[in-house]
């Protein structure tokens, strides 16, 4: 994004948001150069755009690709960076080689984040980049996030949190900047669809990816397919449950999911909820 346009658009922000954005720019400026772990979500997209506005060519985006990342998400990261002239590297890291990840205990994310950011730090060093940053926000501190432990151990910076930005702040600033991600539904890697203790396999990740893609193509934009052994538990927004249960769609979903390898297909009557698998930790 052109710097003049960036400045013009952000002048419209309220006083508190403007102050937080100024703080974010100050934090990023102090880094000198930065590699942003870029997933294409709401948070990392804003972080990347602000960093690019502040540091220009001293910024690079690094996106990790493996079986837990849907192809549609990977494609969006490529297009986002290409459209804005941001240097972008896709790195390949296989978290399934990590026993702690594969066995899927409550600390699964720790092993995944540790491996990913170790690789991103290597790429940053090879490119003469001083710092590595990730996109967690202030609200993430109120949820169960074992991956943040790995972030801390590896001295990866979290500029959005440091600047005091909440998820709502990030969406409002992103909207002011006309970023396509401002209203993007929350997203977590496909491994979060597994009940804790169930082994993660590439085959099951592919099943979940294809199942969720099918729901998206049917128009269910807020959705999750949770896997419990041979059963798929579908979550859609509460307002969409009736539509999902309509005869034509219900039959199409059941047929498709059986083709993908699920023996049983259920609908969560509570509706879509981020981090619902964490309920088993209580």
What can you tell me about this protein's structure?
There is one protein chain. The protein is of the alpha/beta class and 282 residues long. The chain folds into 2 domains: 3-176, HUPs (Rossmann fold, 3-Layer(aba) Sandwich), CATH 3.40.50.620; 190-281, Alpha-Beta Plaits (2-Layer Sandwich), CATH 3.30.70. The protein is 46% helix and 13% strand. A 4-stranded parallel sheet has the order 3-2-1-4, sandwiched between helices. Strand 1 (34-37), helix 3 and strand 2 form a beta-alpha-beta unit. Helix 10 (202-217) runs antiparallel to helix 12. The mean pLDDT is 93.
CATH architecture of the largest domain: 3-Layer(aba) Sandwich
Secondary structure tally, helices: 12
Which fold name is given in CATH as the topology of the largest domain?
A: Rossmann fold
Number of strands: 7
Portion in beta strands = 5-15%
State the domain count.
2
Stretches with pLDDT under 50, minimum 5 residues: none
N-to-C CA distance: 44 Å
The largest β sheet comes out as: 4 strands, parallel
CATH uppermost class of the largest domain: Alpha Beta
Derived from helix and strand composition plus strand pairing, the structural class reads alpha/beta
Give the proportion of residues in helices: 40-55%
- What's the helix-strand series? HHEHEHEHHEHHHHEEHHE
CATH homologous superfamily label of the largest domain: HUPs
**Spatial order of the strands in the main sheet?**
3-2-1-4
- Round the Cα radius of gyration to an integer and report it: 19 Å
The global form is globular
- Mean pLDDT level: 93
